[in-house]
Write a structure and sequence with these properties.
Elements: H1 10-24, E1 29-37, E2 40-49, E3 52-60, E4 67-75, H2 78-91
Antiparallel strand pairs: 1-2, 2-3, 3-4
């Protein structure tokens, strides 16, 4: 995981997160299309293989030193993973 600085750059954090995901998963990970999460666009990293699926969303929020990482890991059909992801994103609310 990246080391936080006083001014984390989202592009750099996403690059570090993607590198980490590639190193820690036995299947290819890629940068996908950003997703809107309760009105905030978040970069998305995803990958799957062997019935396992990973989706990671990354953002810098509120203050330059605050980051958020949403990660969903499932096993089984890709359709079930997508359903769980959509459910998680539909219920997320920023406070």
């Amino acid at each position: 995981m990246p080391t936080l600085t006083d001014d984390p750059d989202l592009d750099h954090l996403v690059e570090l997160t993607l590198d980490s995901a590639k190193a820690n998963n036995p299947f290819p990970m890629r940068l996908g299309e950003p997703r809107e999460v309760d009105g905030v666009e978040m970069p998305l990293i995803e990958g799957s293989g062997g019935g396992k699926h990973v989706t990671i969303l990354r953002s810098v929020v509120l203050d330059p030193a605050a980051t958020i990482l949403l990660e969903l890991r499932t096993t089984g059909p890709a359709s079930l993973h997508r359903e769980r992801l959509e459910s998680m994103l539909a219920t997320w609310r920023w406070r």
